[in-house]
Design a protein that fits this description.
Elements lengths: L9 E5 L2 E6 L2 E9 L6 H15 L4 E10 L2 E11 L11 E11 L2 E10 L5 H10 L4
Antiparallel strand pairs: 1-2, 2-3, 3-7, 4-5, 5-6, 6-7
């Protein structure tokens, strides 16, 4: 699996999740085994409750199927609180776009986050369109 990340972003890995960050924006990827492709129904039944439990101040958005350059994905949007800024301790409201891609028993969960009202539509589209299975 391969996808593009803007040049110069800091990379960190924690368990199965790799995250790239730059100021208030982040891109994370997690690949795991999954027997069947995710659907809107499975996302509402399984993923939304898990996000509600694990994401700070989670507020659900929409769940839909989308087509990206290299295939379909479940698309989940939601709002959350950022981690506190290490210098100012300030928390900002973020928007997240989560894409769940599936290929031959593997699921790639791509999550893009940034400050609410920031214009990340085009950059996030470039990143989500770049994900492809090798």
């Amino acid at each position: 699996m391969h996808f593009s990340v803007p040049e110069g972003w800091a990379r960190s890995t924690s368990g199965p999740v790799t995250t790239f960050t730059d100021k208030y924006n982040s891109i994370s990827i997690k690949v795991r085994k999954r027997a069947t492709a995710p659907t809107v129904a499975s996302a509402k039944r399984e993923d939304i409750p898990e996000l509600r439990r694990s994401v700070p101040n989670f507020a659900p958005g929409e769940v839909s199927m989308v087509t990206r350059a290299h295939g379909p994905a479940v698309h989940i949007t939601y709002l959350l609180d950022s981690a506190p800024n290490p210098v100012t301790d300030k928390v900002v409201r973020d928007v997240a776009e989560r894409f769940e891609f599936w290929h031959q028993g593997q699921e790639a969960i791509l999550t893009l986050t940034g400050p609410q009202h920031a214009d990340n539509v085009d950059p996030w589209r470039i990143v989500s369109d770049s994900l492809q299975w090798k």
